[in-house]
Amino acid sequence: MLLTSPHRAAPPVTDAARARVGARRTARRIKAALVASAASICLVAASASPIPLGVGDRLFPHLGNPGYDVSAYDLSFTYAGSNDKPLQAVTTIEALTTAPLSRVNLDFARGRVTSVEVDGEPASFAAADEDLVVTPDEPLSQGQSTRITVRHTSDPLPGEGREGGWVRTGDGLAMANQADAAHLVFPCNDHPSDKARFTIRVTAPEGYTAVANGLPADVRRVGTATSWTYRTQHPMATELAQVSIGRSTVVHGTGPHALPLRDVVPTRDRATLAPWLAKTPDHIAWMEGKVGPYPFETYGVLVADAATGFELETQTLSLFEKNLFTDSTFPEWYVDSIMVHELAHQWFGDSVSPRTWSDLWLNEGHATWYEALYAQERGHRSLEARMRAAYAASDRWRAAGGPPAAPKVPESDSRLGIFRPVVYDGAALVLYALRQEIGRAAFDGLERAWVSRHRDGTATTADFVSLASRMSGRDVSGFLHGWLYGEKTPPMPGHPDWKPAAARHSPGQQASPDVMAPRKTAAE
Questions:
Q1: Separation of alpha carbons 337 and 375, rounded Å
Q2: How buried is 376 (Cβ within 10 angstroms: 0-12 exposed, 13-18 middle, 19+ buried)?
Q3: Where do the Aminopeptidase N-like N-terminal domain residues begin and end (predicted)?
Q4: Of 5-14, 130-139, 257-266, 493-502, minimum mean pLDDT range
Q5: Cα–Cα distance, 406 to 424 (Å, whole number)
Q6: What's the confidence (pLDDT) of residue 413?
Q7: N or C terminus of the chain with fewer C-beta within 10 Å?
């Protein structure tokens, strides 16, 4: 396409010019076809060696990519009815370059790429570790809006030594992308610092239902299949994307302030799960009473017939194992508090996302805090007793996993290693100490201000410390430094009798049973 200045008339296009443009386009198509034909296994190799990049995250140095900011994703998946076969997929990324780019790195590690286009023109592409490196025909300038379209497969089968992405359920699929697994499902800038709006389209055979983040925008028949479209109204981190495909029923309801609710459950379990689903409006009202209005356009519970060992706060549609609701050994107060934990994440972690993965404690510490507070107010489980037990274990947690705001780098074979007790109850303990230090009124004001000021954005530990100082009327950075970064747990204000436990002692309260953390039994 010949772009011209809006203030100058376009010069006449001659037959010779048309011929030259047509020849260039033909050459590009031939080049793209030759590149695509070489992709016999996964991704093709470009003529020059591509390299993986990253945004320099301390815990995941190769996650994310520099040079552009994503504004929107359009994901399209076609499910053939078998959850052990790759899905056909198309990912379109709208982005703005923040630097001149001759190549664009995307995170993508599990699927076969058949073609890539940049602004409608074929582009070459190659693999570099867990990156898909795209080379447009013309370099991209700084400040340029660009559209990248990748046609690929999305493989639900786990790779060797690589967890996450699609979760195979008893009747289909769901997603669990935290912390660094969204790029096992679709090409993306897979870091929470780059949030974007999502449109998600899913086509599945008759008898299946597809649900995704956000609100439904369209549903239509496509031959013997059905195609659903969902859109988010707020930006979302890639690790929070959710797609459910299964023989499911969508249960609609209404929450506080006429908030649309929609739960997704296995059809055969609808009656069994109904009493649990009915609790959500009260849970939302309770959280709103603590921190202010619910931050998104809808909410719901996705119940998966799968043994994951975790629950997950995917934005507007939290993922839960069916066993949590059907195992009679879990008491009601416990299940309620776990539902509140994932709901609390909609404010802490989803609406306000961590700028880096070292800020994970802001997610998990807050969700654990409100889980424990709800258990005290509604389940008569002492918050102080839980915090005292956490204090006893805190030094050991810090030795094993690092302090809450500076967790140790996960082992190379365990991406889940950052989800340690120190960022759950250990981080909730930090919040308890802060409340003890500044008082309940200032602490409650801080919590409301935090989710209001950083709504739909990202924030850091330094941002939280700064706001805590402002809301309390004094500098608390020195007080919080030891709690957030110290090798040893500082003394607890108001509780000089609290002591670390001996190394052999194992307290009854351990990490909160959230995503990637071990679930407690009812006996604990």
A1: 6
A2: middle
A3: 85-238
A4: 5-14
A5: 13
A6: 53
A7: N
